[in-house]
Structure formats: C-alpha cells, structure tokens
Amino acid sequence: MTAEEHVFNLAVSLAEKYAIPRWEIFMTHLEFLFVDSELSPSEIEGRIKHSNMLEALSTQPEDLLRRGAEHIYPLLSGTDHDRLTVFYSLFERYSGDNLLGVNSAIYIKVLRTLKQAVPGLDFKRFVEGTDVEKACRNAINKTNVDQLAKMAPKIPLLKGKGVVVSSSTIYRIYLVRCWEADESETSQPDWLKKFDAYQDTVKKLEPDDAVTFAKDILCSEMAEKKMTPQIKLEVLKRMQKVVRQVAGKVNLTEERLVQLWEEAQKKLQAIQSHLQRMSSAVLQDMLTSTDPLLRDVGRQLDRSASQVDQVREGLCQLVLVGKAPELVESVTKVMEFPGNARKIYIVTLTELLEQLRSATDSGSVHLPRFKNMVGAIAAHLAAGGSLVKQEDILPLVRKFTADDVVSLQLRLDVLHQVEQSFQLTTDDIVLLLAHRTQVVIKSQWPNETEIKIEDIDADAKRQTMFEKYLTVAHRAEEILTLKKLLACWPPLESQQKHFDEPEKHPWCQILARLVQAGHPVDDLFGEACAKQLLSLASCRCLFRLLRDSHRPLETLKVALLAPFDELREEALRSSLVTDMDSSQQAALFDFVIDRRLVPKLVSSALFTPLTEHLIEHHDGDSVCQVASELRDATYPVQAGDLLMRARRTHLGFRTLSAAITAIKAWMPNEDDDQ
After folding, report:
1. According to the 3-state scheme, what is the secondary structure of 551-565?
2. Does the predicted model carry a pTM greater than 0.85?
C-alpha cells in the first residue's frame, strides 16, 4: 500500500476492473495508514474522511471490527495516545461495547486526559492489566501522581483482564520509583531520610500495597547491593510504625478493613523475621561468595521474603548444582523451612526425574544436574555423613528406570551414573544388566521384544540368549554385536568350562563366525589374547580356519598375536611367508612394528627384510623404539646392528663389538648408571 492518493485511487480502479472487492482494498489501506504509513494521527484522520472509505467499510461492520481488533490494535504503540484516540474514535460508531470488550467513548475521554497529564503512560499495557508497573513507572512523577491515582479506578480494563487499578497501586508504583530513583546513594542515614520524606504518601497505601511496597524496597536487587541488613531492619521498623498509625485510625465498625490491616501487620512482621534470617552468617556468606552459583541462590533466597515456595525453589537449586547436603541442611534451619535436607533431596529428585521423563531431547540439560546431585550425596556419605542416604533416592531411581515409557538410553544413563556413585544392590545390578543388554540387542535387531530381568538374571539364561543370537548373526556387524553382549555381561561359565573346547567357547565362536564372514579378526583376536580369554586350542583353531581360507596375512597376524611360541614357530615354518606378495609382506611388517612384535621375529628369516623395511619406510623414532624393544628382549646385538645400519655406518665396521658399543652409547641401560 501507499500514502500517495493518486496511487491509491489507481489501485481502487484496478481492483474494480479485476473484480476485487472494494471493501478489502479500503480495509487493507486503513491498516496501512495506522501501522506503516508514518502519517501523523491528524493526517490519518483527514485521509479517512477525505477518501470516504468509511462509507464502503461500514457495509461490513462486524468484519471491520474484527480486522481492527486483530490487525491494527496489536501493532499500535501504547504510548501513542493520539493514534489510539483516532483508532477508538473511528470504531466508536460501530462497536459500542464490542471492540475489545469496552466502550470506546470511555477510552477516548481517558486518552485525551492522559495525553496532557501522563503523556508517557503505556495505555495498552495499563488496560490489558498485564504489567501496570511497567505501564506507569516511566511516566509517573510528583506532578501527576495524584491525578493518575484519581483516574485509575475509573479506567475499565479490557474485557476479562481483571479488576481496575486502585489509587493505592498507583501510589505504590510511584513510591518504588522514587525509592530507586537515585541508586548512587550509599550512606546509610540517607535511606531513613528518604523514607521519612515520603511518609505522607506511604499513608495512602492500602494494606496489600503497603506489604508489597515493603517487599519491593527491602527484598530487591538494589536493597541487596546498597543496603546493609541493619538499615533494612530500621527502614522496616519505620514502615511498621506508619502502618500501625494508619490501622489505628480505621473505624472499628469496618471489620473487614480492620482485619486487612491486622493481616498486613503480620506480614510485615514476617518480613522482619526474613530480614533477620538473611543477616545470618550462612546466608551472608552465600551472598558474598566467589561462587556465582551460590551467590545466585543467595539472592534468590533474599528476594523470596521467606515465602515457602520460593525458599523451596532456592534449596532445590542448591541440590541441582551439586552443593553439599550439609549446606542444604544449614539453609533449611536458618530459613526455618518446614523440612530437612533429606526432604529437599527427595523432592528435587522427584521433580528432576519427572523432567527427564518428559524431556524431548536426550536429557542433556537434566542429566548433568542428576550427576551433580548423586555426586554430592556420594561425597557426603564417603565423609561419614548421614543427612541423606542412598536408600532415600534409590527407590525413586528404580521406579524411573523400570518405566518403559522413558527411552532406554536415558534409563541406562541414569543407572550408569548411580552405579558410579553408589554400591548397587543385586537387584539394581541385574536391572542395569537388562538395560545394557537391551541397548546392545536393539542396535542390530530393533524389532526384538523388550529384554526383561527374568531373561538375563542367571548365567544359563544369558548363555541361551547368546546362542540364540549367534545362530541368527550372519553379517559382521551382527557378529560383533555379540562381542558387545559378552563385554557387558559377567563372564559366562562356558568360557571357563569349555576353555579348551574351541567349538563351545563363546569368544572363539564369535571369532570363527567373523572368519567365515570374511571380516578381519586381528583386532578382536588381540583384545581376547590380552585378556587371556583364549587357550592354545582356540588360537590354533582360528589359525587353521584363516589358513584354510587362504588369508596368509591375517593367519600370520593371528600367529604373532597369540601368546604361544609353538603356534608362531609353526606359522613361520609354513609356506605362509612365501604365499604373500610384496604388498602383503609390507602390511605384515607395518603390523609387526605397530604392535611391537619385532622381537618375536629375531630368529626367523623375516627379521632382515623386516628391519630393512623399518629403516626404509619408518622414521628415526620408530627405529629407536624397535631397538629399545630388542634390547629389552635381551637382543642387544640386533638392536645395535639396527641402529648402526639406520645411521648408515659403513659395512666394514659393523662387527659384534661395534654393535654392542653402539647399543650402549645410544641407549644406555639404567643398570649401567648405578
């Protein structure tokens, strides 16, 4: 749209030509004038009258009101009283009480008065009742506070937005603004003088506003930064004195008002108790702590005015950030909270687990808090504490981890954290085992049924499950999943029972299936040998399977990794060495060097070409490393010879004594230094 009249007239003509409703054109233009045109309110009003658009718009009054309420009003500034006046004036003739649920004529009158008296007031925010303080604070001052206080009760709020704003509320907002007007004041007597200066206005407050005012000036960020605990109490005493004076003048026949002032005095007494609590060493230490987490909770407690829900929230926050139960207990006592550290931990954990249960992500926000909590309890118990025990929280954790609605990984993460922090019971260990088994199985067989505790709570049941999946595992990924299954379980009895029976030994069965699937086995075989899981019979079985599969490189790797000399010697005597091409031989040499297996080949025909490969294709650090391995394996001559060749020593000097001298010079034995 445009503010240029001739362009708008052209748009209307084109709309008529192409059968676009004139009403829609005029309504869109009206929205543009109010929201985007940057015309002044008087120019908008003149344009509306000059264009005769109201004649067209009035044919659909209900649509006009709806579009005005939905498309124009939300985008108007609450402090632009002139534009709001034009808006309400335009719709007055059609709306009655239908526009935004109020009589437009009343708002027009109010806006015209506010424009002169309180020009900065956010009228929209005021009548919407969402935040009257923000609506008034920047506009209210000494010259207009009385007039606004007089007007406020007569300004109806938008339909369904609550009760009208009282004069007392206006005075309270004004007093708070005056109190905070000069934050540079730091000398304590000034605060008392400031309060005395506004006593007459304080006396105009109603009971609830008197209490709120006390909270606003004494339990606030500015009060925490600028006022000492002692001066806060002095200001409160003066406030209590004023309230007693006002309450004393109330007609005793006005029972409800008498009751309200009595309640106000009790609430002020409660604030006094709160301020006294906040002056305690525990809470002052929190407020001045170098730990930002402690400071934040201290401030939260300071602002709470000792209201139970807010104190409870602060205590829960201490738990979530991992503070010690001793501190939580101390704060509960100082704040006179109806509960102890144990209760706070239980409540906090209950809420935290509920948040984890409904988390849309992986619990990335809540899991660290859970870790903080259980870590603090574990440290407390390790130090001999008894304020909170693992028996207090484990039942809640068990209930959570048994809930199938919660993602399996999340339950597993929670249990894993508990496992790291506490000594689990047998039932907890079995539950953790079931969850871990579920994760492993589902990674390759996602359609399998849920794993129950009774499926894996005995060795025989785990053996049966292993055999079941061994039968259906054909791809390498599926076979390797069985290795993960064995890794997360206690050792199967069959591992020991059938240690020398390869066809029945679980690890040998997995390795054999990998060989049949054509998958490399040296990494898994090396891991099994390092853990002493395989017997000579099992190693020989795998050796022959690989040999018969015509995979000489892998066969030699297995023979060299096996902790059995006879198997290595058998491999080196066989035709496997000659069956390899040059690339396979280079790969074998790199493998031997990387796995630090060179000393095992000293007496074989492969040693010389191996060292040549080392010198030619590896750096000096690798050469020194291999020489060190040879020396440690009681092969000093070979070590020295390797170093001399690497340093390109002339062949004529490569004698036995020269080699020994070289190994001593370049890699002195620690024993020689003693």
Report:
1. CHHHHHHHHHHCCCH
2. no
